[in-house]
Design a protein that fits this description.
By secondary structure, this protein is mostly helical. It contains 5 helices and no strands.
């Protein structure tokens, strides 16, 4: 179990990995495992603290796809891109924390 968490923590703190989705999936995977073994979670507070740090880090990261063009749209601009789905990692992290606590 420690090896799995070490891998998840490594993914979480990678600075050259810009895809928040990958970090989220790694954290979600480990959180799901911990839900079934809550007794271990209560005995290993160091790992729990590190996991919560990783979740908060993901919640606070800003997606790199955002640029400054959104602050100065062209005159008459209307956003018609309804196919694009916005993922709120802060809400997803909040749900993970709720499941753990």
């Amino acid at each position: 179990m420690a090896t799995v968490f070490a891998f998840v923590q490594h993914i979480c703190w990678m600075t050259d990995l810009d895809d928040l989705g990958v970090k989220y999936l790694a954290l979600e995977f480990y959180t799901t495992i911990l839900q079934s073994s809550s007794a271990q979670l209560l005995t290993d507070m160091d790992t729990f603290t590190k996991l919560v740090d990783c979740i908060f880090k993901m919640m606070l990261e800003v997606d790199v796809e955002i640029d400054d063009s959104w602050s100065n749209p062209a005159e008459g601009f209307e956003d018609k891109d309804d196919d694009e789905v916005e993922i709120d990692y802060a809400k997803l992290g909040n749900k993970m924390l709720t499941r753990l606590l």
